[in-house]
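### Sample
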Amino acid sequence: MEKGRPQKAVNAIKPARKPSQSSVLPISSTPSRKKRQIPSLVSLCIGFIGRHFEDIIEDLADIASSFPPNIKIALAAVARRRKLMDDDVILALADSSWEILDISGSDVSDFGLSEVVKTCKYLKTVDISWCSKVTWAGVSELFHHSQSLEILRWGGCSRSEDTARRCLCMLKPSLKDVEGESWEEVDASELARGAHLLRWLVWPKIGNDSLEHLQAECPRIIVNPKNTLFTFRGLEVPREALPDVALDDQVVEDIDPKTWELSPRTSFTLVPSRPDELPIAEKFRLAYLERDNRLAPKRAKNARQRQRRAEKEWVMMSTNAKALALASQATKSLHIRS
């Protein structure tokens, strides 16, 4: 190569360099896939217990007494998903450190709810939707004991909808002592009654009248917030206030979903028979007739044997029969001699 040759001529004979994949695709187009983590030993144990949860319900109070709060709430989530949650289960698993309570779609009644809220005094989020056994009495106990309640979910089935409409008046602010001597010296928390910190209400089937009533009487409560980039009145919508998110999803995110899957019923598929093939009932009938004809001679022989045996026993037992038998033998011998 001559000295003084332009450098661009040298670059022209070099092979073109392929652009890397990272240089071709923009950063925004490369989706970040979250790797599925290996479940921990605790999650595997919870999954095993959850699959056999119905076997330990009778002794659950004794078994769960030594469990930490995170294990209890995980077992409660599994029991709810397996349709096994009732008063006994939730009372055996309730822990005073809980801040969320999800009993939606369960068989928990007013008694179970009232006892749970006495134990869990720091609840901030509660879901009682689709609970047909919870009435206004249980909701009243919930508001009375849960002074930190911020998010509430209710409604769903017809009974839950009726309970929600009857308890709508409990959401309105009211005063315990209207005729106080000096309101300035009284703590603000002692003046209010009910869930005075409630900010988010999830009620998918709320009627227009109830919605207008809430907006007029309780403007602080936001009903059915949506997952948007904008905030409501300067407040960011919490994840627990979204209707399409289960409260206890984060509790069981590391547990195998097969733990609470209901085993499907075994279905038997009927194989269509050929047109020239006999039905099963006809096959059984023909087989029975063939066997009956084959055993007919043997049955006749057995009948004759039973008859001779019966006659012999009758002769041995009856005196008259013995006399007749001896007489017939004597007659036969006389005829032979003559």
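The two ends are 156 Å apart (CA to CA). This sample (RNI-like superfamily protein) is used throughout the tutorial notebook.
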